[in-house]
Amino acid sequence: MKTKRLIRIAFLGMILYVGQVALSVVPNIEVVSLFILIMTLVFKKDTLYAIFIFVMLEGLHYGFGLWWWSYLYVWPTLYFIVRGCSHILDHNDRLGWSVILGIYGLIFGALFAIVYIPVSFEYAMSYFIAGIFFDIVHAIGNCVLCYLLFSPLKKTLELVNRKYL
Prior knowledge:
By secondary structure, the protein is an all-alpha fold. About 80% of the residues lie in helices and about 0% in strands. The model has no long low-confidence stretch (mean pLDDT about 95).
């Protein structure tokens, strides 16, 4: 792997991490989903490497609890959803991508609860049910942030990619 590509991947992972930490004081409102969406459209498979850097930084910052294991598949799942939908949706369709991120916000709790199934299925279900309100907030936040910030963030990352990365 070339040095320039390694720097790009590290830069993308850092953007995800800083974005998450910056909004960590606001419950269930986050920019990581939006960043992963845009990075996947612009940088393709390098985003997947950046996601794993982000997940490792999260573990180092907050500790490697049971929740951390779900990050190993929850965020890559979004990457694969975007890759799949990018063949259907126009890359500049901010309304379409807002709907995708809204749906992802709704299923986030269900995806997150999978890691608790080995503890007990009942615990995983109660975890999911107890968090439905937060998933709704997450979905609305994803929709609104994507609709408002999709175009300027995508243009910025495309520009950075052309000029520097």
